[in-house]
């Protein structure tokens, strides 16, 4: 299984970005998927997760109400729509499949991709 994250960039405070995660090698599995991020000098943290059917999504408190996670299984793609961005959202963003979609950092099933850098200027 491989993940290719894209869509990051430099944006001003209050701006928006849409991240995408292209998933390969997972076509026959109905796993939940999630977004995670790691800021410089900090541990990787949970951002959002969604079930395979998209019936349930959970968010970290820090992004709830500003970020929306979605997926298109037919295209094997995961998305993260980010709005009202803040400097503290600056991080490398990764996608992966968590063992559960509880809103906390837990174990994931697969190796991490390269991630996509999001930088929010003040």
Radius of gyration equals: 13 Å
Count of helix runs:
0
Order of helices and strands: EEEEEEEEEE
Report the mean per-residue pLDDT as an integer: 96
Outline the low-pLDDT stretches: none
Shape: globular
Structure description:
- The chain is an all-beta fold.
- It contains no helices and ten strands.
- It has strands spanning 2-6, 9-12, 17-24, 33-38, 45-50, 57-59, 67-72, 77-82, 91-96, 116-121.
- The strands form two sheets. A six-stranded mixed β-sheet has the order 2-10-9-4-5-6, with no helix packed on it. A four-stranded antiparallel β-sheet has the order 1-3-8-7, with no helix packed on it.
- Strand 4 and strand 5 form a beta hairpin.
- The relative contact order is 0.32.
- The mean pLDDT is 96.
Write the layout of secondary structure elements.
Layout: E1 2-6, E2 9-12, E3 17-24, E4 33-38, E5 45-50, E6 57-59, E7 67-72, E8 77-82, E9 91-96, E10 116-121
Parallel strand pairs: 2-10
Antiparallel strand pairs: 1-3, 3-8, 4-5, 4-9, 5-6, 7-8, 9-10
For the structure shown, list the relevant keywords.
46% strand, 6-stranded mixed sheet, 4-stranded antiparallel sheet, 122 residues, mainly beta
């Amino acid at each position: 299984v491989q993940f290719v994250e894209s869509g990051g960039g430099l944006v001003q405070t209050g701006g928006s970005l849409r991240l995408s995660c292209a998933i390969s090698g997972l076509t026959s599995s109905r796993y939940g998927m999630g977004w995670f991020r790691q800021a410089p000098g900090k541990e990787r943290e949970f951002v959002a997760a969604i079930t395979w059917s998209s019936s349930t999504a959970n968010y970290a408190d820090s992004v709830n109400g500003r970020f929306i996670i979605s997926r298109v299984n037919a295209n094997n793609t995961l998305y993260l729509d980010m709005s009202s961005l803040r400097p503290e959202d600056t991080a490398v963003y990764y996608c992966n499949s968590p063992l559960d979609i509880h809103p906390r950092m837990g174990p994931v099933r697969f190796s991490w991709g390269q991630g996509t850098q999001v930088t929010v200027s003040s």
